[in-house]
Amino acid sequence: MKKKIDIEIIDKKQIPQSEPERQYYFMDIAKNYVEQLAAKKGSPLTFHVTTFGCQMNARDSEKLVGILERIGYVETDTEDADFVIYNTCTVRENANNKVYGRLGILQNYKKKNPHMLIGLCGCMMQETVVVEKLKESYRFVDLIFGTHNIYKFAELIVTAMESDSMTIDIWKDTDQIVEDLPVERKYSFKSGVNIMFGCNNFCSYCIVPYVRGRERSRRPEEIIKEIQKLAADGVVEIMLLGQNVNSYGKNLDNPMTFAQLLEEVEKIDGIERIRFMTSHPKDLSDELIEVMARSEKICRHLHLPLQSGSSRILKVMNRRYTKEQYLDLAERIKKAVPGISPTTDIIVGFPGETDEDFEETMDVVRRVGFDSAFTFIYSKRTGTPAAAMEDQVPEAIVKERFDRLLKEVQDISAEVCGRDVRTVQEVLVEEVNDHAPGLMTGRLSNNTVVHFPGDASMIGRLVPVYLQESKGFYYMGHIADKENE
Ligand code: SAH
Ligand code: SF4
Ligand code: F3S
User: Fold this and answer.
1) What is residue 43's DSSP assignment?
2) What CA–CA distance (Å, rounded) separates 5 from 165?
3) Ligand 1 neighbours (beta carbon < 6 A)
4) pTM (predicted TM-score)
5) Which end of the chain is more exposed for a tag (fewer CB within 10 A), N or C?
6) In what order do the strands lie in the sheet containing 83-88?
């Protein structure tokens, strides 16, 4: 058989049918191919994974890295590598454009390195128009797969290596969750943990439900087992991940609420901090607020996407809460968890947004006083209900509103972020500060960044830091000693 890369193909007998055994079988075959190629090259093969998009994609990339390392590739920090894979995002148009732009550069690398393999996966690949375009104009890509079959990565690498053309495998949806595959964490001391996949909410602007499929919760036993293993491996902070964690557990055989799951996670020794992302306001229960208020480990931070402050727009967005309900919820949480930092996501320029609607958004921003807000210009996603709506807002108006919102958000966060100044707070030390020698960077429970003198041996530890000065979005501090405690 004619193939792109020069390898001796292994005859496959008795391929296991069950997962994850099947994938481990293919990892062994891929490992053999990687060894053959490395012997020819005279040095180990290298790989690079580039991630676009959200925390869910970042966690998926750690799974890609886990498999690539297991089959013998060595990570490198450049895309001039033997295997490059882009884990893509399609939530806004500019996320897509970035990928097309960078593929041009990869093509140049491939011209110099004929054994190079280029892979594309993630949310963008779930869109038919994207795959058609790639088939048409980006023939040098070797492997394309989607979000539902990422667990098959090892098997797909083998197919791509043995094939002489583009390997494409995209599934429309799945109800499968495959556990126990290799994963390589980016940080030694913190980790994301998927608790659910997909989304059932169909906010009218959003493409995620179409590219990530229906909501599926992982079984609590699997989640707890994974976190216990992480804790045993030195992880102190976990972030529970899902598009709408507040609806966790509804489709389990033995249904359980997100608040109940949090209580189980709280019991795990070694885990000091628990974060979660993302909370949909419509499903945030009183039970969750109570659990947060009682918890010793859940961080004093809540990311609660607002999207718009106008009840009229919220209805068209299919968010299923009103401005008043959002404000009431924010109030109740602040009361129950003193000092909590609320953060949010806001979309500007949704179809039909009037000046009055926008002022409602500004009003909520002022009233809640977010520590930070991710502000996005509405991006039309083909196939979503909002894309077909009339009254798309003219670009100049959107731009003006966006700038005004951003300024307001920044002014408010400069005011509220410093609320803990001149107190001692626990900081999880994350990294050496690249810009200032001798300084370390870490985060408070409420996610605010702190810089302070220290050394790399502190990374991954929780240390008491005196927050000497607030700089708006971050603090300067120093390790607390007896005098200023
Ligand atoms: N599941 C999360 C959001 C995931 S997408 C939630 O419900 O909050 C992250 C953010 O991207 C969203 O909160 C929204 O603010 C933004 N976003 C999603 N679709 C968008 C679009 N079409 N245009 C602009 N921003 C969008
Ligand atoms: Fe998108 Fe809404 Fe689902 Fe979030 S909840 S992923 S915004 S559809
Ligand atoms: Fe993007 Fe997919 Fe996340 S579209 S925001 S990477 S779920």
Assistant:
1) S
2) 11
3) 91-92, 205-206, 208, 243-244, 278, 280, 305, 307, 345, 347, 376, 378-379, 381
4) 0.95
5) N
6) 74-75, 46-51, 83-88, 117-122, 143-145, 167-169
